[in-house]
Amino acid sequence: MGGVGKTTHVTRVYKEVATSHFECSAWVAVSQTFTVEDLLRKILKELHSGVSVSASLGRLERRRYLVVLDDVWDAHLWDKLRHAFPDDVFGSSVVMTTHSGEVAKAAALERTMMLEPLPWNEAWKLFCNVAFGGRIPIRCVRSTW
């Protein structure tokens, strides 16, 4: 479901752990009309900024990396990319956000986190808190619309 905060949630975690727990990291928005080659090129560019793509191929095997693939629509994306990410003992992670249950099932059903929308009153309080920077006007605190 759209609008439940998937990207926001992953962004906060990414900012917290990307530099402190991983040697390299990449955040890539996946377009609905991606090509595997372009997507891999973007990922490598993010992972190895300042290093040529040809020099960076194969270097993930010895590194702890975090890759976020944001807004994935293709249920077969992980099958197309899996070969590029070594399954090693270094604790690397690939995280995908998606609106599609089919995409989540195809990637890793046992590691799927489903986010549900907040109840209306909690969503409203959160909106007001963000919109007014913690100084919520009394008219903003409502239990019904």
Automatic annotation (TrEMBL):
Gene3D superfamilies reported for this sequence: P-loop containing nucleotide triphosphate hydrolases
GO molecular function: ADP binding
Pfam family, one: NB-ARC
Protein name as it appears in the record: NB-ARC domain-containing protein
Coiled-coil segments on the chain, per record: none
InterPro entries in alphabetical order: NB-ARC (IPR002182), P-loop_NTPase (IPR027417)
Ranges for domain NB-ARC: 1-133
Organism: Eragrostis curvula (weeping love grass)
